[in-house]
Amino acid sequence: MSTPHIVVLTGAGMSAESGLATFRDSDGLWAKHRVEDVASIEGFYHNPQLVLDFYAMRRREAFAAKPNQGHIALAQLEQAGYRVDIITQNVDDLHERAGSSSVIHLHGELTKNCSVAHRQITHPVTPETLALKVGDLAPDGSQLRPFIVWFGEEVPMMESAARLVEVADLLVIVGTSLGVYPAASLVGYAPRTTPIILIDPKPVVSAYRHDIEHIALGASKGLEELKRRITEGGIFGR
After folding, report:
1. Which of 38, 43, 10 is nearest to 24 (CA)?
2. Number of neighbouring beta carbons within 10 Å of residue 227
3. Does the reported pTM lie above 0.85?
4. Is 214 an annotated catalytic residue?
5. Could you report the per-residue pLDDT of 92-135, keeping only the tens digit for each?
6. Rounded CA separation 46/190 (Å)
7. Catalytic residue among 33, 46, 107, 118
8. Contact call for residues 144 and 119 (beta carbons, < 8 A)
9. Is 1-20+67-107+155-238 a domain of CATH 3.40.50.1220?
10. CATH of 22-64+109-148, one of 3.30.1600.10, 3.40.50.300, 3.30.450.20, 3.40.120.10
C-alpha cells in the first residue's frame, strides 16, 4: 500500500504541555491583557509599543520552551516513514524543533517579523529584532510588526491547509476546542471516509463530523498512544 498520509491539526493545548500559556483563558485575558488589546490591528494602532512588548515576551517564552513528548511523537512518526503534515494554530516553532519537516502555521510565526504594509513579506527574527520598538522599520520603510495573524485579518494559509485535509488518510486533532474559526472549519474538508481522531482531556464537539474518535488524554500521552496504535498496525494495518 502507499505511504499513509496523516494530517494533524494542533492547538494551544499542544504547546501548553511545554509551559506556554494558552491563547485565551475563560476570563478573556491573555497574559493579563485583553485579547483585543494585543491581538488585533486596532489594538496595535491604539498602543503599538504595548503590542510589540507583549510579543517580545511571547518570543522569549517560546524560545526558552522545549518540545514535549507529543511534538516528538509526531516527528518520530515521520521518521518511521509516514507522511505527516502538521497544521498548527500555534505561533511557536516547537514542531519544527522536534523534527517535523512539514508544518503550516495558520496564525503566523513568532520567529518572523513583517511590515505593517506588506504582511506577506517576512523577515527572520534576529537578536536585534526580537524586541521591536516603534520606529523599527522594514526594508519597505513601514513599521515592523510580528508576523502574527490578528483577529479580523485574513488567514493566508487556510487554502493550503484545506487541500491537505482533503487528501488525508487520517486526520488527528490535538489540543484545540475547535472553537476558533476559520481553523475549526478544516474538519469539514475531510472526506467522509477519512477517520478522525481527537486527542484532548475534555470533550470536544465539531459542527462538521459526529463520528470522531475521542482519546481523552493530554497531547503527550495521547500522541504516544496514537503512535503506538499506528506503528503496531492498529489503524493502517501495516
Report:
1. 38
2. 19
3. yes
4. no
5. 999 999 999 999 999 999 999 999 999 999 999 998 899 999 99
6. 40
7. 107
8. no
9. yes
10. 3.30.1600.10
